[in-house]
Amino acid sequence: MRLLVVEDDPDLGIGICLGLTRKGYAVDHAKDGYEALDMLEETDYDLVILDLSLPYLNGWEVLENIRKYNLELRVLILSAKSFVDDKIKGLDMGANDYLTKPFDFSELEARIRNLLRQKISLEKSELVYESLSLDTLKRTVEVNKMPINLTRKEFGILEYLMKSPEEVFSAEKIIEHVWNRDVDLFSTTFKYHIYSLRKKIAEKDNETAKLIQTIHGVGYKLSNK
User: Fold this and answer.
1) pLDDT tens digits along 173-190
2) What is the CATH number of the domain that holds 95?
3) SS (H, E, C) the chain
4) What is the pTM (predicted TM-score) of this model?
């Protein structure tokens, strides 16, 4: 899951990003409203954590811009504005949740999990392709009904491919969804995760592992052809 934290306080923003990264999320950090809109235009996020008191373009304006073009993106307002009127305004403008500062990180994480569950429930939680099955809610993967244990990155790669079988994705596109922006696209990390994912699937069924295909010079796809 790819998250965007929009927070102008550098210490708080970095702290939230580090905490969520440790929980397995891919997290980017925007420090003002204009940067947030630029990043939202370039990247597909699953959820935005949005401060309201931002420089240049405040959080209300960012939220308004988001809802003009995207009604599905989950938005959690995280703000020191604790008046009931502010909470009502935020929810009426299209925010999915509102948490006031100061806050407990475990509560923030719980609210994020809840919003992402809501998003998944509107989609299809169980993805099936040939002998592969993946449950986005339970975070489980099976090959021919046999469970396999994947890392968060391996799970993210497989989930991304299974959502659009037969479609070819570049390594950059997959990385954009599963990793943070600062990942080294030229490192061997991504190829290692692909190798490890195939290896774990092959331990259950070698033919199933072949479904993850490399299209040389282009990218990767999930296909039985």
Assistant:
1) 888 788 766 665 556 688
2) 3.40.50.2300
3) CEEEEECCCHHHHHHHHHHHHHCCCEEEEECCHHHHHHHHHHCCCCEEEECCCCCCCCHHHHHHHHHHHCCCCEEEEEECCCCHHHHHHHHHCCCCEEEECCCCHHHHHHHHHHHHHHHHHHCCCEEEECCEEEECCCCEEEECCEEECCCHHHHHHHHHHHHCCCCCECHHHHHHHHCCCCCCCCCCHHHHHHHHHHHHHHCCCHHHHCCEEEECCCEEEECCC
4) 0.67
